[in-house]
Design a protein that fits this description.
By secondary structure, this protein is an alpha/beta fold. The chain is built from seven helices and 14 strands. It starts with a strand and ends in a 6-residue tail after the last strand.
């Protein structure tokens, strides 16, 4: 993310899109007005590769494409890091709790979607028509994420006698978790794709903010009391986290 000096703010407007030639190909750049922004900001979505420029005022919005042109080298580097997308369709290979599972059709199982293991082979079995599989798989992963995250939050929060105002599961591009000043916790459902130690660390990090709304020594002491090792999950998320954004259902999945 790159930033420019802060211009004035005004009202919102309809996003507009222009093409920018980067590394020999045309890249769509979406320009949006957001009065809450402090300055012009260029973003590249880590999973979709969508390029956008956020402007805080109508005056700065008029210069958004020029600002993107100045950042073409940075945009090109970010686009090169965007992993190839993996569809949620039958036949895909999808991680679940850090272990790769084959997505296969199933009949007569205990639920519309379930985990099945035969020896060293793990599979996510999905009933019904193949065109419905992506949505069913996404719903399954979100439910599993909700269960796992709720359980870990309750455990860690219970240890120190705190309680979050609410827990929200989202699909965020820039954060695995967050804790607001109102004590609301938010997590990415994609953590269910990661190994359990990575999910545990993110939950411990955000629950610790319920006690310490900073990253001082007392905060990190509490996180380590929850999970012990923090370096391993941090390193795993830094190295492998961007790849978790490559898994997605088609836009019009049933």
């Amino acid at each position: 993310m790159r930033k420019s000096p802060r211009p004035r703010s005004t009202t919102r407007s309809t996003p507009r899109r222009e093409l920018l030639r980067i590394d020999g190909r045309h890249v769509a750049v979406t320009m949006r007005l957001n009065p809450r922004a402090r300055r012009l900001i260029v973003k590249v979505h880590p999973s979709t590769g969508e390029v956008s420029v956020i402007a805080p005022s109508s005056r700065s919005l008029a210069h958004a494409l020029d600002f993107a042109r100045k950042e073409m080298d940075w945009i090109a580097k970010r686009l090169a890091d965007v992993p190839e997308p993996v569809s949620f369709g039958i036949g895909a290979q999808v991680p679940f709790r850090g272990e790769i599972h084959a997505v296969t059709p199933g009949e007569g199982g205990p639920a519309p979607v379930w985990i099945e293991r035969e020896g060293d082979v793990s599979a996510i079995r999905i009933t019904g028509r193949s065109e419905h599989a992506p949505r069913r798989l996404l719903d399954f992963l979100k439910r599993e994420a909700r269960k796992a995250l709720d359980a870990r939050v309750q455990e860690y929060a219970g240890r120190i006698g705190v309680k979050p105002k609410r827990i929200t599961i989202r699909d965020t591009a820039s954060r695995w978790g967050s804790c607001s000043t109102t004590r609301a916790l938010s997590f990415s459902w994609r953590l269910i794709l990661a190994p359990p130690f990575a999910l545990d660390y993110v939950v411990a990090h955000e629950v610790a903010h319920l006690r310490h709304m900073n990253h001082g020594p007392h905060f990190w002491k509490l996180v380590r009391e929850f999970v012990g090792d923090v370096a391993t999950p941090q390193a795993w998320l830094d190295e492998n986290g961007p790849c978790l954004h490559r898994y997605a259902p088609p836009p019009k999945a049933g």
